[in-house]
């Protein structure tokens, strides 16, 4: 099969032929119909993830059709249309048994712990726990975008942050996760403030439901505090930056909640005294388990959420290496989908 192969960190990958995966016991192999290009893939390409062993195939947001079924897999057959969370949970550890597959103690992640979906085929381990059947009306490109960015934003805003109607939510970073969060928070009835340095991204944020859009600057904190009469109820760092974290925490009102979704490979400094003194909450959010997809899919089917609107670019496998490297210069507004 053809795949995008990273042979050296930070060096533009190549597209070449590699062996197709075979289904291990309990696993399936998917023919990749669509896969998303995400900033997490860039972090992996840059060498920020200790799980990656070179040479490596990135890609963790995916949708496709089952091409082969491993021993012990029941209820699934060749040709089924499916997607999967980017965290493939084992289904049997303590956290999985409690329903918290997104923090599985033995999790696998395509594109990180094993070869991913920037390829014609990809394996999905622990298929019984991780496969999500796609409604016939949901196209593969839209479904691929659900696996990381949209599902991550959905769980962060709705389940971890527990955003409610009337609350003010400031979202820092309007890439795929941030724009998804804007759409989801707006659907919940929140007043959404989107912050970015890209005018095209801010324009998209407003079209997805942001009430206000702010150009990121040293004045952002005060602008948010003025707009919200003392601070936002909820902030989210959807990009991953120490500077953003500081602004987000300073933008909160007392007893506010901060959602950390963006990765912070260089670490972060926290004003713990302020966290304590104002009873602020720092909430990490990491993906969403397969069993939580039905609520999200129902809202998509009803038209409340429109993840298809987030797709702004579709590229081929051959265009992917350059697109991945270009993330070093910033994120293209919206969601980029790869058709292998």
From TrEMBL:
Q: Fetch the SMART domains from UniProt.
A: PKS_ER
Q: Does the keyword Amino-acid biosynthesis apply?
A: no
Keyword Oxidoreductase set for record: yes
Question: Which GO molecular function annotation, any one, does this entry have?
Answer: oxidoreductase activity
Q: Which InterPro entries match?
A: ADH-like_C, ADH-like_N, ADH_Zn_CS, ER, GroES-like_sf, NAD(P)-bd_dom_sf, Zn_alcohol_dh
Report domain Enoyl reductase (ER) positions. 10-338
Cofactors that this protein relies on: Zn(2+)
Q: Which UniProt keywords apply?
A: Metal-binding, Oxidoreductase, Zinc
List the PANTHER family. ALCOHOL DEHYDROGENASE-RELATED, L-THREONINE 3-DEHYDROGENASE
Q: Please state which protein family the record places this protein in.
A: Belongs to the zinc-containing alcohol dehydrogenase family.
Name of protein: Alcohol dehydrogenase
State the organism of origin: Kribbella kalugense
Organism phylogeny: Bacteria, Bacillati, Actinomycetota, Actinomycetes, Propionibacteriales
